[in-house]
Amino acid sequence: MDLIYVVSIVGGLLGGLVTILRLIVPIAVRLFHSINFHRRRHQSNIHDRQLARHEGKQPSRTEQRIYL
User: Fold this and answer.
1) Do 41 and 68 touch, CB atoms closer than 8 A?
2) Which of 8, 13, 55, 59 is most buried as measured by Cβ atoms within 10 A of its Cβ?
């Protein structure tokens, strides 16, 4: 009787853990991707502005915007 109880408790805990992870992981992955995408885009814009400044070019209006 105790073995069945332990197995059912462990199974329930694992099932709950799987359910929680199925809910949390997709949200966390989207958040991480979004943060990483915006960070890289911002760094790219900064690099482009510095390169243009070094070459003596005036940045266009769209390049003057700061993307956060």
Assistant:
1) no
2) 59
